[in-house]
Write a structure and sequence with these properties.
The chain is of the alpha/beta class. About 40% of the residues lie in helices and about 15% in strands. Bound molecules: pyridoxal-5'-phosphate.
Amino acid sequence: MREVYDFDQVIDRRGTYSLKYDFARERGMPYDALPLWVADMDLPCPQPVRDALRRYSEMGIFGYSAPKYPYYEAVMEWFANYHDWGTEEKWIVRTPGVVFAIAQCIRALTKEGDSVLIQPPVYYPFRQLILKNGRKLVMNQLEETANGYRVDIMDFYRKVEDENVKLFILCSPHNPVGRVWQRGELQEMDEVCRRCGVTVVSDEIHSDFVMSYPDRYGNPVQHTVYAKVSDYARENSVICTSPSKTFNLAGLQISNLFIPNEDLRNKVKAEIARSGYDESGLMGLVACETAYREGVYWLGELRRHLYRNLQFVRRFLETEMPQVKLVEPQGTYLLWLDFRSLGLDDAQKAKLVNEEAKVWLDAGSMFGPGGEGFERINIACPRQTLEEALTRIRDAIKRRGL
Ligand SMILES: Cc1ncc(COP(=O)(O)O)c(C=O)c1O
């Protein structure tokens, strides 16, 4: 019998060590701000995962743990079945998270002072990791066009050449602008990387969330694993994946890197070994294997919920809050909202959203150049939560007479 999911049930997460719900004061937000910032979901994970975790917790012993073949098989089958990508067990390197993995890659594959390129506005830990590790930050800002965001490929080429870029951290699909980079776009970037000898760390953590409708030119939107675009890409990339976004398991700290090239893999593994990380957490292993084996039905139901939430936001903005514009997403469950027509600077916008509306979103400026005037909102929550957040923002805008 199929599991039944009610993604509109509001679950109280307060007092559960939740970064989203329990740390407003510490992070400078009003204690009663409704949080739709960090990318985890206010929705329960697949029932088979909950059942498996319950079985293990009833055993009551949480000793050192490591995966065997069935774990790797489940991970590889997911990518074969849903991303049309044949992989090998030996390519997989486990880490406790993608951010940790990217830090290891930066250290393993570049030296202090080397240039590392990112494409802002982009997931802010990329910039922080580059700077904290003493590397030079190079930015190829995304181009905002009437048809959505694009990579400025000429600027990309120029920056790679002029700055002697060694490593490129790609966000695919892109958080926060919601682009799912298409094969042709990836090929253009790969071509530049091949000519200039750049290694690519492709963060594909959002790859299981692609909207099932065609893009504005009528072409179906599809996620393409970066390593598939060419032989050079396969031999010179690290593909970062995790079940954490797909199945809402971020607190279980498990992710899987795919590194087809042995030399590259050994360098990254050596850096991870230097950090002292070895065994994965038991619950992360159990959850990852179970989710990839038995979570696909849940994911289908979840995608329907997210799609309906997206439609709700689109309609709400059009009818109730036309000053705020939705950047149409092709993927992810994070929406990029354009507040620029309100004419507020970032401090004024923060006051409006956080203090007056009492909603906690991620301010666009956190994502780097091009993010000013935007806010990122997480729609992986019950409709009621989303409606409450949007209503609070609408009312705050009205009160200001904007
Ligand atoms: C693009 C991207 N990469 C990585 C992460 C975090 O990954 P992890 O929790 O595995 O470090 C996020 C979370 O929001 C993300 O959006």
